[in-house]
Design goal:
alpha/beta; 2 domains; 3-stranded mixed β-sheet; about 65% helix
């Protein structure tokens, strides 16, 4: 199996780079403006907000680099490609946010202990208000693009920009309070901003850890693949979908399909091959197929299915069964049962095996326990 860099992934790379470049330019401009007014006013909150914009620019640069590296073609050492680099870049962004947030909160605490005179003006308030509107636009634009192009880094940047709106709003309110009442909450506002930056960094780690540990595939993708497979001619039903994530839009996996026992491999193969190519083209997912040959017109098969249906009704942990095959010539019965994660699997396995054995005392009963991976 080969995951190749195609026109779709190249176009995705261009779109992500375009959005990131716009983010870099906007954040650098905002940072420059805020640094100037922060130094003029002596506001640690505004300076912290400016530093936050600089980290956003760094995040966008990392996103561009990560996207370029992730789009490298597969190699001998990495035959599944480099797509997971995008997840690594998201982690790097999270580290930058955590470090920046910690440094900002240290500076804010120092200002709380040793407050300084502030010098706000109406012009400064107007500039802060303008930056809020810029961030609102940037947040919506970046997050929408992140979802559209399935980029965790862009989505993280969009969420961070959304937090920046609140951060700038806090800065604006603290300035208004100082000008109206002479009460300085600037350092406290800076500390509040720092906590938001730290939280954003933690959120990045939470969002990304599943990609490294292994997590359940996206439900919509799983349902769509199941539907496409079940709509294929010759396929009676489909089960045991397993998907492996090698980066955004780079999935591999397997699925077991039930087919009529009377069909030959020569008859089945062309349809499954077309289905395989369809899944790769439409969902960027390379799927291999396992086969169950079933005969639902067989009397013993129908009897085994009836027993399994009754067992499923009696036990909520038994999610389903499939691959029921009763061979009268060699006196064997095969079937798979799917169990959830909150049960004693060994106990249910023994119970199902024993119940089938009661109804088929002269048969060797083989029950396989499956996990609902997708």
């Amino acid at each position: 199996m080969v995951i190749e860099t195609n026109n779709a992934s190249t176009e995705r790379e261009k779109k992500i780079i375009k959005v990131s470049t716009i983010g870099i330019a906007a954040n650098l401009l905002l940072a420059a403006v805020k640094i100037v007014i922060g130094l003029l006013s002596g506001s640690i909150a505004i300076v912290s907000d400016a530093v936050n914009n600089l980290t956003d620019s760094a995040s966008s640069i990392i996103t561009i680099v990560g996207t370029k590296l992730a789009n490298k073609p597969p190699s001998k050492d990495h035959p599944f490609g480099y797509g997971r680099i995008e997840y690594i870049t998201s982690i790097v962004i999270g580290i930058i946010l955590l470090y920046t947030g910690i440094q900002m909160i240290i500076s804010s605490v120092k200002k709380i202990i040793h407050p300084e005179e502030l010098n706000y003006s109406v012009n400064i308030l107007i500039v802060i208000a303008a930056t809020i509107f810029v961030k609102i636009f940037l947040s919506r634009y970046t997050k929408k693009a992140g979802i559209k192009y399935n980029s965790g880094a862009l989505t993280a940047s969009g969420n961070d920009a959304r937090n920046d709106v609140l951060i700038s709003a806090v800065t604006f309110v603290s300035a208004v309070i100082y000008m109206a009442f002479g009460i300085s909450i600037d350092a406290w506002a800076g500390a509040f901003i720092s906590l938001f930056v730290i939280k954003t960094g933690v959120d990045v780690f939470v969002d990304m850890h599943g990609h490294f540990l292994g997590q359940r595939a996206d439900q919509k993708l799983s349902e769509t693949i199941y539907q496409d497979v079940r709509n294929c001619s010759h396929v009676i039903d489909a089960h045991d979908l397993i998907l492996h994530d090698y980066g955004p839009d780079r999935m591999t996996g397997s699925i077991n399909v039930e087919v009529d026992h009377s069909l030959t491999i020569g008859e089945i193969f062309p349809e499954l091959h077309k289905l395989q190519m369809h899944l790769l083209k439409e969902h960027m997912t390379y799927v291999v197929f396992g086969l169950y040959a079933v005969d639902m017109d067989h009397e013993e098969t129908r009897e085994a299915v009836a027993v399994l249906e009754k067992l499923q009704q009696e036990n909520s942990h038994m999610l389903g069964f499939h691959g029921v095959d009763v061979d009268c010539e060699i006196k064997t019965l095969f079937c798979d049962i799917t169990l959830d994660f909150d049960c004693d699997r060994e106990s249910i396995y023994r119970h199902v095996t024993n119940e089938l054995q009661k109804h088929f005392p002269d048969y060797a009963v083989f029950v396989s326990v499956d996990t609902e991976f997708a």
